[in-house]
Amino acid sequence: MVGVFGRSLSFPNKHPNRPPMSHHIRSISLPCRSHPLVSQIKDEISELKTWSTKPDNRTSSWLCDGLSRLKDVHDSLHEILHLPQTQDSLRNQHEWVETLLEDFLRFVDVFGIFQTSVMTLKEEQFAAKVAIRKKDDAKIASYLKSRKRLAKEMLKLVSAIRCIGQYQVPPPMLASVVDSDLAGVVTDAVRVTMLVTVALFNGISTAFAPRKSSWMGLRLSKKDNRVKFEEGIQEFQQVGVDSLWGFRKKGDEQVKVVLMKMQNLEDCICEIEFASEKVFRSLITTRVSLLNTLTQ
């Protein structure tokens, strides 16, 4: 029996060098996203900028709220500075970081001096209340002179930080989204620190200065933006010079009214001292964290 075999046909390969067909998967690269802490501090900075644009009710509570918000900004910045990607970015920007360290050192210095000045003011405030009860015009006059000195000291502190923030962000920090965001929040943190610091120092200076109103313009950026604080803190202004003269001619009820205002002022001073001390400590922490980016 003869088997039947099917005929096999073969055709020449017209494209012998063509590689086998394959499916190509398109590569999609997404831009690096910033850490959630960066978004958080951006919101905190934005809220603080909004706070600074609403000075209609310039009370000690308003000022303490600004100080509290500023502490939150520096707490967030402290955490950001501990991120590995942050340390990698700043480690290569030695000159810029050194400039930032100088700026934060100035902030720490002026807040440290402010803490000492506030402690002295509290002591003088207590002595003034005793003098008011005794209707001792000579000691009250001494208290008023101390307030003038404090007003001048506050203006000196403002002048001491006038040069802060006068620098350009290094071009390499703008090369990526992450580094650009980092440079932006650090720069903005310095600016809002300036805003709150000027509001604090100039608010007290304006209230205690001989004239009723004053303003201090500060260059906050290369665009020559200026911030004016034309009014002092309300509780400080309520105990004016006119109300502290001639106690020998005032009745007991008038003295009681002045003493109540003095007590209210003392309470406000204590609140400001407490809030500013927290900022002072947070500034130290931020500077240490910034220094660690160069040493670790």
From TrEMBL:
Name this polypeptide is given: DUF241 domain-containing protein
InterPro entries, A to Z: BPS1_pln
Organism from which the protein derives: Citrus clementina
One GO process term, biological-process aspect: shoot system development
Region spans: Disordered: 1-22
Cited Pfam families: BPS1
